[in-house]
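We examine the record.

___
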Amino acid sequence: MTGIVYKSTGSWYTIKTNEGGFLDCRIKGKFRIKGIKSTNPIAVGDIVDYDIENTTDETTGVITAIHDRKNYIVRKSVNLSKQTHIIASNIDIVFLLVTINNPPTTTSFIDRFLVTAEAYGIEAILVFNKIDTFDEVALDEQLFLQYTYENIGYKCLRVSAKENKGVEELKEIMLNKVSMFSGHSGVGKSTLVNAIEPSLNLKTKQISESHSQGQHTTTFAEMFDLSFGAQIIDTPGIRGFGVVDMERQEIGDYFPEFFALKEQCKFNNCLHKEEPHCAVKNALENDEISWSRYKSYLQILEGDDEHYRADDYAEDRKASDETRKS
């Protein structure tokens, strides 16, 4: 029998069967010794085969096989750097929720996420949430970030879950798709899911004022069927996003604005660092590409996983402000 994994708590998985019901299943030990380096060999969104198990008072199942994935999104495991964590699989579109100051979302985090989505062939959209809380400075910062990423080609949405602004546009994009919401803890993922589908009534928490960081409300990934013909995967908040399984030579290919210039570089294997006649460096000096994006690229290239939360667009903002003054 075949079903789709809707919920994962680590040791048990809730599967939606082809008949539309739900069944709790456990995993067979063999999945853990297949050489899969992931901390979770089965993820929400996986299509699996299972057998019914009637050894207890209630009916459960045993997962026997995982079907090939269309795609998946993965990051470094938080505590085990040599392992990876699959956040979800078989996704049509991923929405990265971005907040300006409650809590702050940095460009290094955004760029690592977008690079991973590019690498695994998943369309990514930036959702600037909590626009109802913006003062003039926060609004300026949000519009600057939106300008930066729209210039690259990424779709950006401005949303207020609390005031229901931008929610209908979001729902239209989600129609007939499996979507995933991701972002830092506290960016309002669960609140936004509730705005999209109030009947779900997911738990939400306030931002910690002392640390300006969100508190984890979602502790595991879970998929929900929505009333308007869509599916959403809600995920736990992510503090850092470690990029995995990328060769140095290919990292630049996952920055669309770098990839577009690649053929103009003198060397086919140009890393866009010290090489002469580098089209990316020339574009950078001419302010045709973003310094914050280039810094993110260098961090990923050098395996610098210590600066997930570094604020990397300060120089871009300073240059932009100077340009506007002149």
Observations:
- The first helix runs from residue 107 to 119.
- Confidence is low (pLDDT under 50) at residues 205-218, 306-326.
